[in-house]
Write a structure and sequence with these properties.
The complex is a heterodimer. Chain A is mainly alpha-helical. Chain A is 77% helix and 0% strand. Chain A has helices at 4-28, 36-48, 56-90, 103-119, 126-149, 157-182, 186-194, 202-221, 223-229, 233-238, 243-265, 271-283, 287-312, 319-341. Chain A starts with a helix and ends in a 5-residue tail after the last helix. Chain B has a single domain (2-267), classed as Rossmann fold (3-Layer(aba) Sandwich), CATH 3.40.50. Chain B has nine helices and twelve strands. Chain B has helices at 48-55, 78-84, 100-105, 120-132, 148-161, 178-195, 206-212, 230-233, 236-243; strands at 8-19, 22-33, 37-41, 63-68, 71-72, 85-88, 166-170, 198-202, 215-220, 223-229, 246-251, 258-263. In chain B, α4 packs antiparallel against α5. The relative contact order of chain B is 0.16. The chains are: A mainly alpha, B alpha/beta. The interface between A and B is medium-sized, with 30 and 36 residues.
Chain lengths: 346, 269
């Protein structure tokens, strides 16, 4: 469609404006209402370092509690949606995402392991060891799922998702065993399984932000190659795409990004599935646009869900539970629709 | 003969390839020259697709060496090779709903820098090939909605948009009706004549091969049976040796080339 790039650009602008506005709006909401103007002043004060004579309680609530959580929601949502887009493009499979492939579970297993090791007296510095173990867990899971599915040379939807389910089931039993071992520390592990952004600090962001931005930039570099991958590995290779290298670089980068997200927020499912699907419907399958827009869209969706559970619902529901409750039925809808269409129109 | 003073492209020396324990190709010695149209013929499983994959560097030979323009094929990088050699696969499956034009434009990929867009010359090239293959009329339709034959024409258009010196066809017309087969092959033929394109085509249909190719390469069980100009190698005894069927070869006045007719082995004598 000739109108596609213009429309994609307009969609991007709309998403960006919506995202920025929602971030300000979310910062006003909560137990203590803060007017939007004051939120902006706090942000300005933090950036410039000048003292604007604001109420110190307001500054503390906005700058130390709400802003890091809002930024984390946007980054985690953005990264998960971005990873969904990239996984779907390299695995030629519209149902692939960090959650359905079991990669999130693998990362949670790694993170839980650190906590259990602590119980047994092997104290590793959690700020570093949790992301590292989560990364090892996620890459290990990815390799296991791919190895299991590789008997089917075309890596079809069914065999990949099935492999993801099998590996995730084994991991969930393993995590169950860790919970049993963790004894009194079991609450922290449950936190990873259900996903939550409460208690996010600027320290978490100091790792999440650079990883998210660097990963995003790497994915953007390969937009056109990802498009060509959609026509099959053999055809892509004869068009000058180094398919093996492309697969490895992007699978590793996305696993790293997923692992860092999981170490901050725990398992949050379905964002990586819903956002790329909706956007592909809206602007078409061009990954050069999808990568950027799914980042914005994912950030918007998770910020919405997190603000809902933080400031609107009477009690805080774990955000992973919320996204699964919204995303699960959506997944069923896509599945049903694909059956009726006979082919994947997406 | 025209090919004697022409440039040499590939040189294969004692090339062999295996999938696991099963040997697919062995002891292949062959030279392929510029501006010629080769037909690769042989029964199912004779190694035709593997042969093409070796030529375009998708597979690396286990034994022997392949050189392209005097340089080892392994020393070519992906993009250089893609500017020289294009492949049209047998089943062209596109997973996401890219438009026909978007898919053809992908053919320009090896000629573009990482962030460069298509310039006016690229667009013109894409327009020309889409027109030639009769797919310009549905240029805005998603490829996922096309019929098998339409999709195959998109695949050929993309390979030609790649502006290669050599086109490899892996049974690229076997899913098409006779009208579209002939029109695609005629488009490619005119490029051979006018731009010195070289073609290596794996084919099933012997009579289409005689219409389209200059030289034939017969493979059986991964070995070269014989190769040469059509007049020399298209003979009943060779067809019998390769396919195990009774055949008669004659000059056909209507098509103006050699044609083969077959007889099921049960009906002879």
């Amino acid at each position: 469609m000739a109108a596609r790039p213009g429309f994609s650009f307009a969609t991007g602008i709309v998403l960006l404006v919506l995202l920025l506005a929602s971030m300000v709006l979310a910062a006003t909401m909560g137990y203590m209402k803060v007017p939007a103007a004051e939120v902006l002043q706090v942000v300005l004060e933090q950036i410039t370092g000048s003292d604007r004579g604001l109420d110190p309680v307001t500054v503390a609530v906005v700058a130390d509690v709400r802003l890091p959580r809002i930024l984390a929601a946007v980054l985690v949502g953005g990264v998960l949606a971005l990873c969904g887009t990239v996984f779907q493009a390299i695995l030629l499979n519209p149902l692939a995402d960090p959650y359905t492939l079991g990669i999130s579970s693998g990362a949670a297993f790694g993170a839980s392991l650190v906590i259990v090791l602590q119980v047994f007296g092997l104290a590793l510095p959690p700020a570093l060891s949790i992301p590292v173990f989560a990364f090892i867990g996620s890459v290990g899971t990815l390799l296991a799922v791919l190895a299991l599915a590789s008997g089917d040379r075309r890596l079809s939807s069914t065999s990949l998702i099935l492999s993801g389910v099998i590996v995730a089931a084994i991991l969930s039993a393993a995590i169950g065993f860790l919970k049993f071992l963790a004894d009194e520390q079991v609450g922290i592990i449950i936190f990873w399984l259900m996903g939550s952004l409460s208690g996010v600090s600027w320290q978490n962001l100091s790792l999440l932000l650079p990883v998210a931005l660097a990963g995003f930039a790497v994915c953007l570099l390969y937009g056109r190659e990802l498009n060509i991958m959609a026509t099959g590995e053999r055809a892509a290779a004869t068009l000058g795409v180094n398919t093996v290298r492309l697969r490895w670089i992007l699978l590793l980068v996305c696993s790293l990004m997923t692992a860092v997200c999981v170490s901050v927020s725990g398992i949050i499912g379905f964002v990586g599935l819903i956002v790329p699907h909706l956007l592909r419907h809206l602007i078409g399958p061009d990954n050069r646009w999808l990568i950027g827009l799914s980042f914005l869209g994912g950030g918007l969706l998770l910020l919405f869900a997190d603000t809902l559970t933080r400031a609107v619902l009477p009690a805080e529901v774990p955000i992973g539970v919320l996204t699964a409750l919204i995303g699960g039925p959506f997944f069923c809808f896509i599945f049903k629709k694909r059956q009726q269409d006979g082919t994947s129109g997406l | 003969m025209a090919h004697q003073d022409s440039e040499q492209l590939w040189q294969l020396q004692q090339v062999g390839f295996k999938y696991g324990a099963a040997s697919v190709l062995q002891g292949l010695d062959l030279q392929l020259e510029k501006g010629c149209c080769y037909g690769v013929l042989g029964p199912n499983g004779s190694g035709k697709t593997t042969f093409l994959d070796l030529l375009c560097g998708l597979l690396v030979p286990e034994t022997g060496t392949i050189t392209l323009c005097g340089r080892l094929l392994a020393d070519w990088n992906h993009r250089q090779l893609a500017r020289k050699v294009a492949l049209v696969p047998q089943d062209f499956v596109v997973r996401f709903g890219f438009t026909v034009r978007e898919v053809v434009e992908m053919g320009r990929h090896p000629h573009l820098g990482r962030f460069a867009g298509l310039d006016s010359r690229d667009h013109e090239l894409v327009d020309v090939v889409m027109e030639e293959l009769g797919i310009a009329v549905f240029g805005d339709r998603p490829v996922t909605r096309l019929s098998g034959g339409e999709k195959q024409r998109v695949a050929v258009a993309r390979a030609l948009a790649q502006d290669p010196e050599v086109l490899l066809l892996d049974e690229a017309t076997s899913n098409l009706d006779i009208f579209h087969s002939l029109s695609i092959l005629a488009t490619i033929r005119s490029r051979i004549r006018e731009q010195g394109l070289t073609v290596v085509a794996a084919l099933h249909d012997l009579n289409l091969a005689t219409f389209f190719c200059d030289r034939l390469i017969f493979l059986k069980n991964g070995r070269l049976v014989c190769q040469g100009p059509i007049d020399e190698v298209l003979r009943a005894e060779i067809i019998h040796e390769v396919y195990g069927v009774e055949a008669e070869v004659r000059q056909d006045e209507f098509s103006g080339c050699r044609q083969v007719s077959f007889r099921a082995s049960g009906t002879e004598s």
